[in-house]
Write a structure and sequence with these properties.
With about 450 residues, this protein is an alpha/beta fold. It contains 14 helices and 16 strands. Strand 1 and strand 2 form a beta hairpin.
Length: about 450
Amino acid sequence: MNRTGTAMHSLPALIRRIQERFEKLEQIGSLGNRREDGFDRPAWSDMETAAMKYIQSAAEKAGMVSTWDGVGNLFLTTPGHGEEFVQVGSHIDTVPSGGNYDGAAGIVCGLEAIIPLKPMWERLNRKLQLVLWRGEESASFNAVCKGSGAAFGVCNPDILKHTNRDMSLYAAIQAQGFDPSFIAEKKATLGPEQKKKIASYIELHIEQAKRLETDGIPIGVVSSIRGTVRLRVEVSGEANHSGGTPMGIRYRKDANLAIAYMQVGIHEACSYAIEKGSDLVQTAGIVNIDGDFNKKHPLVYANSLTKVSPYGYFALDIRSNNTAFLTDYVKDIKKIIQERAKRFNVEVKITEILRLAPVEKLDPAIQHSIEASCRDLKIPFIEMPSGAIHDAALVAGQGIPAGMIFIPCRGGISHNPAEYASPEDLARGSQILSNVLYRLAR
């Protein structure tokens, strides 16, 4: 044991174990023979379940106890006498043709942070619990943090109707042997007494940006998590002949042209807000290409090369770590869209797909523990916000003290087959996480 009470295992051995874990995960949901071919482990799929069962087997072999909740989240707990838990968690699903480190890094490092503490398990005042949340990625079923949301009873029941590859979320949950009624009835899978026993929650994740790599800093201590408002903007015009119809809004109701000007207008608004010092990112990630949406709105296929376009849509993802600013900014963006619709003589429908509040400040005591652990291990760190949403945001939103650790990912690339975190960075993060868990559980 070192002076903080955590087990001292050789770094080369830890690196080797982490490599072995990822080699196993690379066989589950792989789209080819190489890591670079990408992965596909959708929410509530056979592949997601298989990856979770692999981690379950490894944890049980180390002496941990496993429990599945009503929707299929997996809880792996150390034995001990404490009534409270220190949770470390993340997810193991991927986006289509994604990488193997988004989410899985937190699961593997969490497991390798808990196992070295085994000599201390029975002496700690709190049990340690590794949580594998179902379906964090919104790429499956167009809803984010579904497993953690269901655990606390905060999922919108409407998401059960959302489809992924022609299967509804309701059917997918049932197909994996779990109960969608928890979401349908907004009934938490974790009861009030279980929730009270969660003393703290920590999540390790790849940065999904390149500040750490660029600045040569091994660890990011996350201070806040950006919230998001996601909009679908549908624009309805009028079909007409592209050659015979004169230019100008007196003659044309061009949906695609209006969309183009809407996107320019909202980009200009974003640039102005950033120049004024606001924390903000926004992305129009979908334009007319959502396959599941198009099945229900086939008018998008009425567009063609020789027609004034009668219909189109785009999706907009707006993120900030400031709640008040985010609320006001979204109102401004809706006004810009409506003004452009009027200017180009088209109809517009704006649907709010998701609103998730920012976590303006993660728990200061956990941040302090992470920083102290970095100092113990003489590992440099910086404080930084998270631009991406994580299950930690859902947990923090329940009033549970939560914190996050970032490690570098190569080139800042994520949601991409090229996504990669080195075994050395993963091992370093695991060592810090182990130190933090000891501090929080002793």
